[in-house]
Specification:
The chain has one domain. It is about 30% helix and about 35% strand. It is an alpha+beta fold. It contains 2 helices and 3 strands.
Length: about 80
């Protein structure tokens, strides 16, 4: 008799955060895109300060921020 074990693995989609950019006549405006295998959320034109927002995007990825928390994080960032 063969002993068979069946494992069920729940795949939780990991959100990947990236910086977005839109060039304007006055310079660049930066935003954040959150994307997983199910959906994509974009907060465009948040700031013209690339370095600070890039650091925030890196932290969101490093800490695996849940996308439902992103709006609060962005509000805190802008304060």
């Amino acid at each position: 008799m063969i002993d068979v074990k069946i494992f069920h693995i729940a795949l939780v989609p990991m959100t990947i955060y990236s910086l977005t950019v839109r060039e304007t006549t006055d310079g660049a405006l930066y935003g954040v895109m959150a994307e997983d295998n199910i959906s994509r959320v974009i907060y465009a034109d948040i700031t013209d300060q690339k370095d600070g927002l890039q650091e925030l995007v890196s932290l969101c990825n490093k800490l695996e921020l849940d996308v439902c928390q992103l709006e609060d994080v962005l509000e805190d960032f802008l304060c």
